[in-house]
Structures are given as C-alpha cells and as structure tokens.
Amino acid sequence: MIVVMKASSSQDEIDRVARRIEESGLKAHISQGVEHTIIGVVGQALSEIRDMLQLLPGVDEVIPVSKPYKLASREFHPQNTVVKVNNLTIGDDGVIIIAGPCAVENEEQLLATARGVKACGANVLRGGAFKPRTSPYYFRGLGMKGLEMLAKAREETGMPVITEVMAPRDVELVASYADIVQVGARNMQNFILLDEVGKLKKPVMLKRGMSSTIQEWLLAAEYILAQGNEQLILCERGIRTFETFTRNTMDISAIPVIKRVSHLPVIADPSHATGKWYLVAPLALAAIAAGADGLMIEVHPNPDQALADGAQSLTFDNFQGLMSQLAPVAQAAGRKLATPGTKVEP
Amino acid sequence: MIVVMKASSSQDEIDRVARRIEESGLKAHISQGVEHTIIGVVGQALSEIRDMLQLLPGVDEVIPVSKPYKLASREFHPQNTVVKVNNLTIGDDGVIIIAGPCAVENEEQLLATARGVKACGANVLRGGAFKPRTSPYYFRGLGMKGLEMLAKAREETGMPVITEVMAPRDVELVASYADIVQVGARNMQNFILLDEVGKLKKPVMLKRGMSSTIQEWLLAAEYILAQGNEQLILCERGIRTFETFTRNTMDISAIPVIKRVSHLPVIADPSHATGKWYLVAPLALAAIAAGADGLMIEVHPNPDQALADGAQSLTFDNFQGLMSQLAPVAQAAGRKLATPGTKVEP
Amino acid sequence: MIVVMKASSSQDEIDRVARRIEESGLKAHISQGVEHTIIGVVGQALSEIRDMLQLLPGVDEVIPVSKPYKLASREFHPQNTVVKVNNLTIGDDGVIIIAGPCAVENEEQLLATARGVKACGANVLRGGAFKPRTSPYYFRGLGMKGLEMLAKAREETGMPVITEVMAPRDVELVASYADIVQVGARNMQNFILLDEVGKLKKPVMLKRGMSSTIQEWLLAAEYILAQGNEQLILCERGIRTFETFTRNTMDISAIPVIKRVSHLPVIADPSHATGKWYLVAPLALAAIAAGADGLMIEVHPNPDQALADGAQSLTFDNFQGLMSQLAPVAQAAGRKLATPGTKVEP
Amino acid sequence: MIVVMKASSSQDEIDRVARRIEESGLKAHISQGVEHTIIGVVGQALSEIRDMLQLLPGVDEVIPVSKPYKLASREFHPQNTVVKVNNLTIGDDGVIIIAGPCAVENEEQLLATARGVKACGANVLRGGAFKPRTSPYYFRGLGMKGLEMLAKAREETGMPVITEVMAPRDVELVASYADIVQVGARNMQNFILLDEVGKLKKPVMLKRGMSSTIQEWLLAAEYILAQGNEQLILCERGIRTFETFTRNTMDISAIPVIKRVSHLPVIADPSHATGKWYLVAPLALAAIAAGADGLMIEVHPNPDQALADGAQSLTFDNFQGLMSQLAPVAQAAGRKLATPGTKVEP
C-alpha cells in the first residue's frame, strides 16, 4: 500500500501518517518526491487501514499495490489448475464443449437435446432446473423434477451434467444430482452461496457478474477457494455496457487476462453474451482462438418453441456446423477438442 | 408487442407470423408501411412468445410495448404508497433520514452513534450485522450479536432500525429484530431472497443493483409485491460506470423517474454512491432537491477507526452540518423533514 | 510515479529498472516490501517513461501519482476562477442561468424565446447555429444566418449569447458573434479545436464528453488553458451508461468533484443529460443544491414544433416555474441567483 | 415509427395524435390493444416528428422502426463492399494486415519498422503523423515531416500507407500522402471532418468511437457515404466500459454484427483495444475467427523506447509469431491471408 501525500502537506502530517502506520504493526518508508511525498506501507495491511489512512490530514490518495486475491492468483500458484469430471479434464490441452437447453422443459426435450448434442461431440450436458428470471412472471424452471430429468439424461447418454444453484439451501440437493454446480452471473456476489459451494467436494463453475471487474470476479473465486474447494472453473458470459444491439458485451480480453493472472480454467458462454443465435458461432470461434478452455452453448431441438431464451439457442444443424469449424481453430490455437467422455459412474 | 418485418419479407412470411400469433391465442393487426410491414400483437403476450416470433423468417425485430411490471407501476396504482414504521411515514410529505454506521462493530460504537444521530434529528438507525464484502478477507459483520446490539440501541433511543439480510435462511431472524429489512445492491436479483422478503409483514428497502436498469429494479420490486408485501421502499445507491473518481455514479435522474413511473417511495444513499465523505453532503442535498423521500447516510463516531467504509462516513459534526442545510432544501422542494419518531413499541 | 515489481522479480531486474530511471534523468527510491519491491520515481516523469518501465522484465505495474493536469488543478491555483462576461460573473456567489432554444430556427422563434427567458430571469441566451447531429439527415443548423440572428437577439434584449463552434476554421467567425464560445461534448477531445479556442480572448464553455472521465475532461481543459485562455467554464451534461430510460446519466457528483479538484466554474445542462422535459426541473434543482455555478436549459416557445430536441425543451410556463423554485434552493446552498445582466456593449 | 398511447389515454388524445401525423403528410394506422392503443406512422418520418409526437398528451412512447442509416445498411446494399488500394482488396476473401508504429518518430524508426513488418507479411504500413493525445503535454506527432517519412517508406517498401487526419483543414494534405485516410475514434462524431473525408476519392478508415453504439458508428459512416465516398472501411478498437484492467473493452461481437447489418468491410485494432502487448495476439486471432476482414497492429523495433503507446506495441519477434498463427485461423474461418501487395504506383 502506498500513501501519496498532498503537495501542500506539512511535515507534521507526514509524521502523523507514518506514526499511524507503525501503530498498526506495519512499517512506513518515506520517500520525498519533487511534488509529493510518498509513504510505502510495508507488511500485510488490512483494507480497513486503507480507509483509515485516507482520512488523515494531508493525505491525497492511498493506492493498494498487492493484488487482493491470493489463492486465485497465478503468482502464488503458477501451475494451471485442471478440474476433473470423471475422465474429462478441464483446463489442460483439450477444449471442452458444454451444450444443452437453457431450461429443462420436459423429459422428451431434454433427452432429445442430450442425444443431439452428444452426437455432435459435446462433452457435458447443460440444463437449468432452477432459473433466475428478471421478471416474476417468467418461467422459473422445474426445480426438483428438472434435476431428476438431468439425472436420467446422464444415465442414458453417459454425459456429465451441469446445472445452476440459486439458493444456499439447495446446494446439497443440486450437488447430489449435478457433476458440476453452476453459480450464475446474478449470484456472483451472493457471498453466502459462494461459501456454501466452497464447502462442496464437487467442481463448481462461477460465471462472471454482469457488472463485475475481473478483479472482483477473482475475489468471488477466492471465496470458494478459501473454503477449500479448488475444483473451480470460471465462465465469461458478457458484461453490461451501453451497447444495446447485443444482450451483453462479451469481454473477449477477459480470457487471456484470466489465463495470465490466474491458474483457473476459463470457458466462454457466447449464448448469454450475445442473446442472438446468429452471433453464437463467430463468438465461440473467437473465444477458442483467444485461449478459452471450453464453451457453453445453448442448443434446443426447436428454438422457436423454447420456454426460455429461444432467440439465443442453436438448432442441432447450427450446432453441428459450429462443431466442425471448432476443431481447426482449436488446433490453430495450439489446442484440440476434448474427447467426448465415456460413461460416467454416477 | 409489435413485430417489425424486414423490408424484404414476403407475404408468406407475414402470413406465417400472423398465424403463429393467432395460434397463441392472441390477435394480429397487420399494418403495411412504406418500407416495413408491422404486425401488432393484441392480448397478454408472454415473454416466450417474443423469442419465438423473433426466430420466424422475415422478422426484423420484436418490440415490447407494455411495461413488464404492473404492481410497481403508477399506471396501475396512481396513488403514492406510504410505508409506515410505527408513527413514522415514508413516502408522503416528510423527508426521512436514516443514519448510522456501515457496520455494527460493538455496543459502545453503536450506542454512541445512535445517540449522536438522534440528537441531530435522524429518524431511523442503520447498522450492518451481516455485511456483503467483495473479499473473503474483509470484516463480514457480527451477525446475531450485531442484531442484538441493534435491538438494544432501539430500546435505548426509541429509533426504529434498518439492517440488511443476505441469506434467505436469515430472513425470519433479521425481520424479528429489524423494523425495516434491507435487501442490498448485490442481492437485487437474488430472486430467492426477494421471494422470502415478499412474504414478510414488515417494511422492506430494496437497493438498486449496481448494474441494474430502472426497469430491472422495478421488476425486482415486482417480485416482492407479487408475494403480497406492499411495504416497499426503493433506494438509489449509485450505478457502475466508467468513471473511477467515485466508487459508483449516483443516478440522480432515477429519483424523479421512479416518482413518475412508480408509486413506491424512493430514498438515496449518497455514502455508497460516492465512497468519499466530502461528497456526501452535496449529493444528499441534490437528492432531496430532486424529490427523494429520504436519505440513508453513514455516520461514525471515529471514521478513521471504522472497520468498514470509514472513508465514506461522516463525523457527528459533518452530519450535524448537513442536517442544518437539509431543511431549507426540503422546503424549497415543497417538502419538510419528518419529525424524529417518538418511542417505538418493539 | 511508482514502479511495483513482481513478487518473483530478481535483484537484477530491480537494478535494471533503477538504472533506466536514472538514465532518464530521474531518481529511483527503492523500498523493499514483504511481498513486493516498490521503486519510487522522483522528478518530472514523462508519460513515455511509464510505458517504457512497464515493459521491463520483473515489473508488475507502474502507477502515476501526480495528477496529469496542472493549470486546471486547484492544487496549483487555489482561488476560484471567476469568468466575466460584461458585467456578469460566473464562478462566484451568483448562480447564472443560460436559456434558449436548442437550435436557432428563425428570427421570430429566437426573438420570442430571448424575450421569454429574459422575462423569467435568465442571464445568457443560448442557441445553436452549427448543430452536431448523429445522422446526416437531421437539421444541421442555419450556420452564418443563425449567428446573425443571435447578434440581433443580443442587441434587442441586451443578453450575452453562447453558441457552439464545431470546426477549427469557424472559431474566429463564431467568436466574433458569441460572448461565450461553446465546445460541445462530441468535440471535447477534438484537440485541434481546443487549441484554437485556447487562443481566443473570449470565455469558452467546455462540455464534458459523454464517455470522458473527470480527469480526461480536466486534461481537455488543460489544452485550452495551456494556450493562454483562462476564461474557461466547464459544463456537466451527462455521461453514457447502460441505463436507457434517460438519454444520458447526469453525473451529479462531478459537480462537487470539480469544485474540489479544480478552480474552474462548473455548470450543469439537465436538458441534454436527460432528454426528457419533465426531468429537467428536478435535475436543475439538484445541480444547484450540489454546488453548480449555473445551469443551461433548453426553452422553446412551442416544443412540439421544434426542429431539434423538442422533447427536452421547457415551455415558458415550465421555465418560469423552475426559476421560482431555484432561488430558495440556491439560498439553501449558500448562493443566490445572479442578477440578469444589463445592456451589453457589443 | 410507432406511437404507443398510455393505458389511460382518451379517444380525443388518440384522434389528436392521428391528426398531427396526417398533417405532417404521413398516414396513421390505429390499432386498439387490450391495454394500449398503438398508432403506426406510415411514410418517411423525420426525426423531428418523433419529438413532436412524444410531447402530445396521452402519448407514452414513440418507437422508431426503420433503421436510421440507409447507405451503410446491407438491407439496401446486399453485396459486400470491396475497397481497393492499388492491387490490394479489402472486404473479400483475403484478410489484410496493417502494421507499423503508433507514431512516426524519425526516418530510421519508420523505415526499420516498415521493412520489418513487410518481411513478416504485412500488407499496409501504419504510422501516425498527427497524434490525438489526451494531454497537451504528450508527444503530438511530427506532422508534415511525418507524412514525408511515410511517403519515403512507401517508396522504399512498396507498401501502401495509412495515417490519421485530425483537422478538416489537413484533409487534402493528408490525402495527398496517404493511401488510406484514417478518422480516429475521438473524431468519429466530428461531423465536419466526416463531411470532408466524404468528399475524397480515396479509401477512408473510420474507427468506432469509444462510447459509440454500433448504430451511431453506422450513422457516422453514413455521413461519409452520403458525400459520395464509398471506399469506406470500419475499424473496431474497443469501447469504454467499467473494466479497468484493459484500456478499453474490445467488442468482439461488433464484428459479426457489422458483417450482418452492413456491407462495409470491418477490421479490428487489438493494440488500442487492450493497451497491453501480451493481449494483442489472442485478440487478433479472436477477431479473425469472428470474421474480421483484417487487423491493425502496432509494431515497434524497440517498444520500450517508443514515444507513444510502447506498452501495446509488438516487437518484430512477437509480430512474426502472431503472423504464423494467423494463417490457420483465417483458414478455419473460411478465409486466407491477403498476398502482400506488389509495388505501389504513387
């Protein structure tokens, strides 16, 4: 932490700041500049100290220099984390594809989609049983019944399944059905939920909040890691900007940034990022070219009949087309598509 | 809902859209323009239908025209909602002042602050027992003990108290201590929590999410209202923008917008909106001038010792100074300061 | 400037950074932290040096600590700047009101508006002769003829006039007609234009760019001040955010921030900030309560016939109503309304 | 254009709106909904009419349905525009690479870079002679001398050159040296400049403004097209968001959106979008995977000595590495790298 004093600060004010730093069990290094005196704070400073120093007379600014996250940072954990879901690995050479409907609507729809995406080469089946919806009047998911249908689809196809948990009270339940537990963008700073999924012994996928900085996202990851769960996957799904043509703006640069500053795997969700099916394929290719460890794609047998987010869902044909383009891009980026998983032992 | 057809759409495509509308139990009004054919959808269209129509060939855009919220809208509820907390009313002539520390730190600090803000004319005491914090390493509140201290401060000062609830499982508990239950910005779209506080028979204050549009905020309010709880207060606390000088950007226009499109009371929180104590007073005055029904202000006996958000807390002196400026501004805006409440019956 | 080294940086890397700093004619102060070594750069560092240091091995971050603007900063110019337009002063006790139509449409409209706003107490007449318009198909102003009409309105009413200049080649021309030359939001970083208006011996009003930070705005001001023109007024007119209800989001906190970090007068334009006439009055009151030195308001005799921005223009009645509310708010904020100017000597 | 009436609007109000539409030479189609009456406006409505209707009693909202740009839209110009620079084509199969230093610093630096990027396979040389800089104290370019050095580099290497024009008065001059004239992001809504480059008989590259929507960008393009210059290339270079890790946020989705709604070629500038050299390669690959027609990359022989934007410049080695990755990604996206141009006739 660095304290920048005002140009007009007095020696007394400088001394007072230094004293307060030392009283907090830290060391103060004073450095006299031409315009400003700068005081380096040496030691593990708590965030409270930042606020305290900011209020002292003569202080212009207090600038943190250490990154506030540790467990999520590559600096303190140089090797890539590789998450294992049965015999599927996420975060190493292979690029994984998660696909399925936005919401589980009924058994028929789910099974048809599961078979369809598996045939195209998807590795993991997605499907929402608990759905966060902007309006209370929208379809909010089948809940428990949806979870059972997911289990059935897994049994039939051998694909591991991922589904979202919204309430701390449902964490155990969802984890007992899902192979990967998803925390959605709207819950990225639902800290109670983060604590709960941090206690699981199961892979968790944490979506980026729609107005969350990369640093806040990694701090949310830190909540989960701090509880002991290191099987964590990040997912970029678009941020909120002034542009209205797309539902959100996919922050493509977040992918190489995460790979650089963190060791966690990161995948991309171009369906939610854009909200328009015809933008999904170009953004999926872009994400892999930028270094993503995988994709999450919404696929529906009949998008124009979907109960949720039909406008951003691919048909089987479109998904098949995308899959055939993905392999050469992955290869150009020094990767390959992961082999679709063999039968999962539930 | 209005369907705008592409300039190049064929008669067949137009007919097909019309047919799909009628199959959904709605009526289609076709209107031939110079460039575009427009099809009006008459009847209560579900959001799923929007997605469905968007995917039909020849369709350029589907534009909703009804507001998606009803219970929160002034159109369907023209009179102002007035929330009652004992003998204090929120949403009529009087402007109410909520004040207190960001976090309850200990009994001494809370009681000193409660007495201090009461002496200056505050109506409600605030204090966080459960604190949402960006990092897992920050002080996260005293929890249950904090609630008990709030109850004690209420007993001693007669001020009603407001405190935040973060987890659905804590709603009953928090409501048994608080006079107003707060849902924080990070939980504005924690729909499970909204459902739970909607079942309370107690006033709720819903803060605007930091990347939430006014419409999404009113839809979150709709969740609470739809559960039957009409004692709802909104709170503008700043949105996330590209500006980094302030912690957030207070959307001052949200205040007159809410007063126009909704019947719910709206207050402003300039402390969180700015993150800097020296901006709190000018923004507090601005909010009242713009028509806010009240303010929520962080006050701390020793901001430079605070365990949370000291940099944005006022001292008693500064709070006293602000209170003396508020009365004439309220009057200029056709309002007055609410009379500080007499003793509350717990 | 402070160089933060990576936790993993070697002594060699630290030495190399220090050497490069000294080679640039600056001094390096090394400060060994627990996790990071920090190197303070002492002396007037150019921005190029920042980029250079950022690229050296072992460097994590380079953080500037001096503010990049000098002439615009209160630190180096503690007294308020007061701009004089004939006998009107901007930036001292009096709050000034600029009013008039968005665009000069014809002599009749302009004179009627000038008389109307003068009768209500406005101090300065606004009116666009050169109009920046998003689309090439919109009305782009009367140009030279508009300037002549403004001169005529000034002659008749005695009010000073403000109008926008868009092209460097028009600066002399516009300045020969206007009492205050306006640089619009879209031209805030048109550096050639800034240089040109910096050479004028006339007051200039610089609007904030719609995606400009406060710091960038002050750097744009620095361009004008650096050319020798100190008669500069800033104008907050809303920034671009994700909210779509209003045209822009008025950054109300920018007003007290500018008053704190700069000595320049700052006024607010609630008409462009909101785009909706019914939000103009509450935001005008809010801006004055927050400490603005004045307002710029669009007024039109028949808003529903206006050739530009009718939806955000006040009628004379609404403007009159606003003026009567302004005086007590100004007083509550320790200010008063400026006395409408007496006859101007052209 | 569609007028949505309030739920509470009277028959009189509806009639009045219809009458005003007909008085403006347009037709009104009234459509009675369950909650709202909707009035379709048939005919070419001017934007002024929108404002006018918005102000009539009983009107809730006026929604435009036609796209405001015509010449830039694919709807009215289905074929891709292919811009020709000598024997190089931009906008067809080949992906073109523009490379060079941010600013022309001296002859040696420019020639070295020109030779270096040509050897790696670049098609066009970039280099700024007139530099827009946030602060007046930064290096602002060599001006006329820089243009001469660019001409010399073209003569020596045979590469066409692109350089920015900032002032309307310099358009002729810059066009007499450059093969492609660039309008920078800060000038995207400098409408005077757009008019001037619209009169050229030379290719123009229009960068997206940093807070500009895709629609505003196409409207800026419309200014140039409306003056008769159809040799227009768009360039996505990142938008301003709340994220601070990168200088801007590259809106990767803008690339497929432009390809869908417009016929103009679109390229990407990952150097300015990110501000960090180590993010340039992944974003360059992503842009090509998403369908961009080319790239603009900053390359410098010694980035750590650059006078501008060194932190985002690639070394020759890094640029060479990127070029070798680009070919397979282009191929995977159904494209190929354009053949480096043969000698240009100046």
Describe the structure in your own words.
- 4 copies of one chain form a homotetramer.
- The first copy, chain A, is an alpha/beta fold.
- Chain A has 2 domains: 2-63, 2-Layer Sandwich (Alpha-Beta Plaits); 83-337, TIM Barrel.
- In chain A, 35% of the residues lie in helices and 18% in strands.
- Chain A contains 11 helices and 15 strands.
- Chain A has helices at 11-23, 47-54, 107-120, 144-157, 171-177, 191-198, 214-226, 254-261, 270-274, 277-289, 316-332; strands at residues 2-5, 27-32, 37-42, 59-63, 83-85, 88-90, 94-100, 124-126, 161-164, 180-183, 204-207, 232-236, 266-268, 294-298, 336-337.
- In chain A, strands 7, 8, 9, 10, 11, 12, 13, 14 and 15 form a 9-stranded parallel β-sheet that branches.
- In chain A, helix 3 packs parallel to helix 4, helix 3 (107-120) packs parallel to helix 11 (316-332) and helix 6 (191-198) packs across helix 7 (214-226).
- Residues 342-346 of chain A have low confidence and may be disordered.
The assigned structural class of chain A equals alpha/beta
CATH class of the largest domain in chain A, please?
A: Alpha Beta
Tell me the number of helical segments of chain A per DSSP (H or I, 4 or more residues long).
11
H/E topology pattern of chain A: EHEEHEEEEHEHEHEHEHEHEHHEHE
Overall morphology of chain A: elongated
Based on the structure given, which CATH architecture of the largest domain in chain A is correct? Alpha-Beta Barrel
Unreliable spans of chain A: 342-346
Percentage of residues assigned to helices of chain A: 25-40%
CATH fold topology of the largest domain in chain A? TIM Barrel
CATH homologous superfamily label of the largest domain in chain A: Aldolase class I
Total beta-strand segments of chain A = 15
